[in-house]
Amino acid sequence: xxxxxxPFLAAAAGAAAALWRHRLSGPVAPDAEAAVLLxxxxxxxxxxxxxxxxxxAHACExxxxxxxxxxxxxxxxxxxxxxLDLSREGHAVLLCGTRPCRLSRPGAWIPDHPLPLSxxxxxxxxxxxxxxxxxxAHVSPDRCAAPLRPRHWLALxxxxxxxxxxxxxAALAAALGFACQARxxxxxxxxxxxxxxx
Length: 198
Fold this sequence. Notes:
Layout (H helix, E strand, L loop, with lengths): L4 H21 L6 E6 L7 H18 L3 E6 L10 E5 L5 E5 L2 E4 L6 E3 L5 E2 L5 E9 L3 E6 L8 H16 L3 H19 L11
Parallel strand pairs: 1-2, 6-9
Antiparallel strand pairs: 2-8, 3-4, 3-7, 4-5, 8-9
Helix pairs in contact: 1-4, 3-4
C-alpha cells in the first residue's frame, strides 16, 4: 500500500481499532494470572495438579477470576495423554495416560468446557476460573477476544478488493492492519508462554 506516512498511520489506526474491539469483546479481567510449562521429555502431572488446585482455590476463596495458561509441549509419537475429566461423583480428575489424579477441592469444578478436555501437545491451553456460589468455580477455555465471524472476514476482503481496485492505499492499509491485529488477538490464548527465563 505504499511507503508514505498516510498508509502507515491508516494501518496503525486499523490495528488500534482491532485492539479496541478486543477490549470490548474480551473476557472479564482476571484477578491473577499464572502459567505452567511442563517438561516436554517428562511431564509431571503433580505440577499440573498443583497449579489447577491453586487456581481453583484462588477463584473459590477470593471470589475473583483467575487465568491459568497450561503449556504441555510434547513429542507427538511418545506423548502421554493429559486430560481433565469429572468422576462419577462430580470431582475434577486429571488423567495422565491411565493414572487418575483427583484435585483437592471435591465438587468445586463446574466445567464450561467439553469433557474430557485434552491438553494439546503443540500449543497452549488457557483456562479461565470464574467464582460461583457455594465455594465453586466455573472453568472454561479462555479466549482473548471473540473471533471475527465469517461475514466480518468477507467484509474485510471486500474492503481490500475495493481499495486495490480504486487505488486507495490508506483504506487498504487500514483493512489489513485491522485484519492482522484481530487474528493475532484471536490466537493469543493459544500461544506458548513467552518467558526468556524458560
